[in-house]
Write a structure and sequence with these properties.
This protein has 122 residues and is mainly alpha-helical. It has a single domain, classed as Arc Repressor Mutant, subunit A, CATH 1.10.10. Helices cover 51% and strands 10% of the residues. The chain contains five helices and two strands; from the N terminus they run αααββαα. The chain has a two-stranded antiparallel ribbon with strand order 1-2. A hairpin with a 2-residue loop joins β1 and β2. The radius of gyration is 15 Å and the shape is globular.
Length: 122
């Protein structure tokens, strides 16, 4: 099972039922620890086909995930950089659990800001 930011059944660290972008990326990287097909990621991360393609594009572009062609099928696997992302993601979630998180900080804002920092836009 994914050991993400869930503090209780169906709720994330901020108390919202919605998953943030970083959570979904971490979930995909956990699923892709071994070679897997698109459908395994889609069902394992509970994503629509459109969402899956968007996330795969981001993960492949940032080299957190790699795709290979085996027997005419695209197979996905996380990279070393993807493993490093997961380690840092879990450290960040651990820090946030131990510290009080401001209630004014909305989960969607947190995800957007985190992704901008991650991709070097700040």
């Amino acid at each position: 099972m994914f050991r993400g930011e869930s503090g209780g059944v169906g709720k994330n660290l901020m108390g919202s039922k919605r998953r943030g972008m970083l959570y979904i990326i971490a979930e995909i990287l956990e699923i892709a620890r071994k070679d897997c097909l698109k459908c395994h990621i889609m069902y394992g991360a509970n994503l629509s086909f459109a969402q899956l393609n968007e996330y795969l594009g981001i993960l492949l572009e940032t080299k957190l995930l790699k795709a290979t062609n085996e027997g005419g099928r695209h197979v996905y696997r996380r990279t070393r950089k993807g493993v490093r992302f997961l380690k840092n993601y879990y450290k960040m979630m651990d820090l946030l659990r131990r510290e009080s998180v401001p209630k004014l900080l909305k989960p969607s804002l947190f995800s957007t800001v985190s992704m901008r920092i991650f991709f070097g836009e700040y």
